[in-house]
Write a structure and sequence with these properties.
- α3 runs parallel beside α5 (104-118) and α4 runs antiparallel to α5 (104-118).
- This protein has a 5-stranded parallel β-sheet, with helices on one face.
- It is of the alpha/beta class.
- 26% of the residues are buried.
- Helix content is 32%, strand content 19%.
């Protein structure tokens, strides 16, 4: 088994999430990392919690969702998984662990994100996972 992975990068507001309106909601499972409203009309009737939508920023829960969609009979009709605002998986964990001392936490956070990105590698062949993530122009922030 080896599902496909796609990474779509773009500035905030560039249309990454809006473009998902073109996906067939009947065959798409949406992982909404920050719990935002999707930026197109009718999304609430197309994406329903427990059916084809979950909201979580927890890496372990995201991996379980990807695995479940791949393996459970109830989700065999799903052909696409969208992980929207994937960069916030690490951002939420970073803030949740902000007061924790030591540097090991950074390795653990990196490992958790790596595991999320590797999860589609063990999915069924007909399943595509799309990760949507923001870019940052560091030259615009005075770093270059």
């Amino acid at each position: 088994m080896a599902g496909q992975k796609i990474l779509i990068l773009g500035d905030s507001g560039s249309g990454k999430s809006t473009a998902t309106r073109n996906l067939d909601a009947k065959t798409t499972f949406y992982i909404n990392v920050i719990g935002k409203a999707l930026p197109f009309k009718g999304w609430k009737s197309k994406y329903v919690a427990g059916k084809n939508l979950i909201t979580t920023h927890n890496a372990e829960e995201i991996i379980k969702a990807i695995q479940g969609v791949s393996k459970l009979e109830a989700f065999k009709h799903i052909k696409t998984i969208v992980v929207d605002d994937a960069q916030y998986i690490m951002a939420y964990e970073f803030m949740a662990r902000a007061l924790e001392k030591g540097y090991d936490k950074f390795s653990e956070m990196g490992q958790h994100m790596f595991n999320v990105l590797k999860a589609p590698d063990a999915t069924r062949d007909d399943l595509t996972t799309i990760f949507l993530s923001h870019t940052e122009d560091v030259s615009a922030n005075g770093y270059m």
